[in-house]
Structure formats: C-alpha cells, structure tokens
Amino acid sequence: MTSSPAPRELPADPSAASPLHTRRAALRQGAAALAGLGLSATIAPAASAEEAVLDDKPGRLKGKVAVVTGAARGIGRAIAVAFAREGADVMGIDIAGSASSITAYPAATMDELEETGKLVKGHGRRFIAVKADIRDLDALKKAAAQVTEKFSRLDIIVANAGIQGFKPLLEMEDKHWHDIIDVNLTGAANTLRAFAPLLVEGKSGGRIILTSSTQGRHGSKNASAYAASKWGIYGLMKSAALELGEHKITVNALVPGLIDTAMTRNATRWTEAMKEAGKQPSKQPPSEEEVIQAQLPHMPLKVPWLKPEDLAPAAVFLASDEAAMVSGSSYDVTAGDTAHFI
Ligand SMILES: NC(=O)c1ccc[n+]([C@@H]2O[C@H](COP(=O)([O-])OP(=O)(O)OC[C@H]3O[C@@H](n4cnc5c(N)ncnc54)[C@H](O)[C@@H]3O)[C@@H](O)[C@H]2O)c1
Known about the structure:
Strand order of the largest sheet: 3-2-1-4-5-6-7
Strand content: 5-15%
Largest sheet: 7 strands, parallel
CATH architecture of the domain at 60-257 and 307-323: 3-Layer(aba) Sandwich
Distance between the termini: 35 Å
Number of strands: 7
Number of helices: 10
Radius of gyration: 19 Å
Bound molecules: nicotinamide-adenine-dinucleotide
Structural class: alpha/beta
C-alpha cells in the first residue's frame, strides 16, 4: 500500500483546485484512512473500474446532445465531461454566482463553467455555456431555443443544480425553506418544463436524469428543507416518467452518497456528517482526518466519501440507449450507504 499525504485542513475556498480532485489522490487518501484504522483494503481495482468502463467503451452517447444544469463544478461537471467523453455535445447551465445566502460554501464562478467547457471540448465535443438561474423559467426557455438553434436536437436532460443548507426546523427562517425548495425542486421542475418539449418534438425518445440524494431517502436532522426537496425529486421523477413514457422518454433519479464537492467540503457539512455518525468534532472547523475517522466505520465500502466522477458511469448508463427500458426508477451511487435504508 502506498503512503499518502496527511489529510488537509479545510481550504479557504473549498471549490479551489484540490489534490483530492484526482482519482489517484482519492485512492491514496482512502488507503491511508483505512491504514489509520488498521484495516486493509482492495479498493483500487473497484475504483479503477469506472475508468476501465469509460475508456473501453467510448461512444455510447455518440451524436447525442445533452443539457446539464449545475455544470460549473462538482457532480454536474463530472457528468458533462463523461457525456462528452462518450460522444455527446453539451449545454452547461449554471447560475455561476451565489444562488442563496443560506449556503455555507463559496458560489461557483463563470471561470469554473468555462473550465467545464474546456474539458468537454477536450473530448472533441461542442459546449455551450449558459449563465442562468434554474428558478427562472423564461431564462431556461431561452436556453432551450438556443439548443434548437445551435445543436438542432436534444436527447438528454440532467436536472442536477442544487444547493444545501442546514438549520433546525424550529429555528428556520422563511428564506432558508424557500431558497432550498425553490432551487432544488422548483428549479428541477422548471428544467423539465423548459427542455422536455424538445425531446417530445424530436420524436426520438429521450433521457431525463434528476439528481436526488440519500437525504431524499430518509429523514435528515437539521436538513428538513433539503431532505424535503430531494424527496420531492422522487415525486417529480415518477410523475414525469408516467407522463412522458408514451414519447419513449425515460425519467430516472440519480442518488449520490456523500460526494467530495464544494457542497460537502466545508465546516458545516463536515460537522453535520460527524453528528450523523454519532460523533462531535473536537474543534471548529473539524479536521479532515477526524471527519474521515467518523465516516469510515459506517461506510460499507470503506471510503469516507465519493468523488464526483464516481457518479459518471451511472449517469452515462441512464443516458444511454442501453437504458431504454429503465424509467421511474433510481440509481444509487453511495459506496454502500444505501444499505442502511430502503
Ligand atoms: N455533494 C454531495 O454530497 C451531494 C450528495 C447528494 C446529492 N447532491 C446533489 O447533487 C447536485 C450537485 O451538487 P454538487 O455536490 O456538485 O454541488 P456544487 O455546489 O459543487 O455544484 C452545484 C452547482 O449547481 C449550481 N447551482 C446552484 N443553484 C443554482 C441555480 N439556482 N441555478 C443554476 N445553477 C445553480 C451551482 O452554481 C454549482 O455549480 C445537487 O443537486 C446536490 O443537492 C450532492
């Protein structure tokens, strides 16, 4: 087992480039964390399987066009880039600025959205960057018109953009509740309302993927608005699957576990993760090491969290022709955390 650098303290800007944003670094980190617990692991082959799948079978989305919201960074970027790698052109939509003052992490930037564009283009695919708030249905409809004008077709919609905040129900202000529900649930519905008509008009079927969360599969202490928004994604997804099936459009939810993105790599989320694991941080902000030690015992696959890229194979599958008979369903990528709930 290779040695690894010690876990880092929280960066001032969690969205800043991090050595953890590479798969190898993630593997080293996971191995080191396990070694610290006195556990051995064979996580490298399992983790590298994603690369093997994507490398060995490029072109599963050849000639297709996808719209991905929340594309500036994190899970949205990983999905956009994986789609490009599989042959799809991408419109990446992001607010690229602050969506709400209730979040405890830095906002994404236009530079980050442009970086996603560079990565997509690096796979030889076209990319259109759109700065828009998914709460703004008119802005999304304008983006849909741009898809028709520039790409002449649409095949895949990924309603992924979202925000997270923590607040006990009894202390919650209106703004907290409304911002989370408006972005995560109404924004996802807006995305479908603006873009699904293009799938219907195209008469070639289509794929819709909505990003939910494990917090949309069980109760979540101090995160009722977020959990409600992500449970709401299920109602939206299943209803859309019923309505759009006759057009050969599939609609499914992607359920990420704890993913190492800006939404997660911050003191508030780390503290809540530790509390969920029955631990209290010894200091604020908690050190990465103590968050890892709190996470590992209850994570079946013995990684503290996943990388955004770990979601990509599931997203590619749900977007592909191979998933033509999968609809109204969900696909969990949680490093086994799903084993704790139904
Ligand atoms: N990180 C996790 O552990 C985790 C776990 C489960 C589900 N999720 C969900 O995955 C999705 C992506 O999260 P992430 O971890 O990549 O977070 P992130 O903060 O890194 O990325 C979210 C992106 O969405 C954009 N966005 C936010 N509000 C927007 C709005 N109103 N209009 C347009 N764009 C907006 C942000 O600017 C950002 O680029 C979210 O829906 C989140 O709830 C994340």
